[in-house]
Amino acid sequence: KSIRARLKGKEGRLRGNLMGKRVDFSARTVITGDPNISVDEVGVPRSIAQNLTFPELVTPFNIDLLQKLVENGPSTHPGAKYVIRDTGERIDLKHISGMTGGLRLHYGWKVERHLNDGDIVIFNRQPSLHKMSMMGHKVRVMPYSTFRLNLSVTTPYNADFDGDEMNMHVPQSVETKAEISEICMVPKQIVSPQSNKPVMGIVQDTLCAIRKFTKRDCFLSKDLVMNILMWVSDWDGRLPIPCILKPIPLWTGKQILSMIIPKGINSDNLRHSTHPDTERSDISPGDTKVLIEDGELLCGIVCKKTVGTSQQGLVHVIMQEL
């Protein structure tokens, strides 16, 4: 074999041996899109959550919870697989669970517990071409056998759902968890330092919907408005005054979108598009320039140029302001 052949390619020294090592505490399976999970979450199959563990130190604050996990054992989620005594002795709970009396925990021991909702992990799709190919996510344990991913985060991973597989790595210390949550988490990677513009934006169904939603002929009844706002985590429960009062109260799409744009966002130079020639000109004549004042969308149809991955789009402006 020539030196060149040993170095280059997928099976070569760099990609095959240096970047492609075997590691513990990792999982790999097919990915599926899920619009109902947050952009910084990853849906983890229960079978994987029961197999991968995190070593939790027993303290006065968590001893009762960890005792319950130890009693659940390795086959019930949430549970635990191993207990490590302060002497370093390792106890496999396969042989302990079910015994009368069980195992009493002591401060300073470690419990290798299952993955639970809210745990921090690193998620990766190969080839890892830039730093956004490995990002921190929060676990959400779900049924079935695929990783679930929010659609907006597929762009930096260059992922699609035609059979792609991705890797998950579980940190094994609180220091590593802290480092991931302070440096690697998805919300901290929205704007790429490489091009100084967002690498994530709104895509697919949501993108089509937001354009139709912000046209002048879009009106929503109260039950629909309530259903939509139930998805807004920090909504205070109050509705704006409807733009039409009779015969029934109706709100515009622009009013509802204004409720999720943070207060203090002002912009009169957001990127926006023009109407295509095929569209009826009487629906929203001249309503193309997007104008936002104190978090309220005053005019304009929001489209890919506004909420996509464009520089000085809405995603970019909110990221800079907040």
Give the structure's gist in a few sentences:
24% of the residues lie in helices and 21% in strands. With 322 residues, it is an alpha+beta fold.
How confident is the prediction overall: mean pLDDT? 92
- Which overall shape is indicated by the principal axes computed on the Cα atoms? globular
Number of domain modules: 3
> How many H/I helical runs?
11
Query: From the 3D coordinates, which CATH architecture of the largest domain would you assign?
Result: Orthogonal Bundle
Helix amount: 10-25%
Would you tell me which CATH topology of the largest domain applies?
Enzyme I, Chain A, domain 2
Oligomeric description of these chains: single chain
Explain this structure:
There is one protein chain. This protein is an alpha+beta fold. The protein folds into three domains: 23-47 and 118-189, Barwin-like endoglucanases; 53-114, RNA polymerase ii (Dna Ligase, domain 1), CATH 3.30.1490.180; 204-274 and 284-321, RNA polymerase Rpb1, domain 3 (Enzyme I, Chain A, domain 2, Orthogonal Bundle), CATH 1.10.274.100. Helix content is 24%, strand content 21%. The chain has a six-stranded mixed β-barrel. The protein has a four-stranded antiparallel β-sheet with strand order 3-6-4-5. A two-stranded antiparallel sheet has the order 11-12. The chain starts with a helix and ends with a helix. The model has no long low-confidence stretch (mean pLDDT 92).
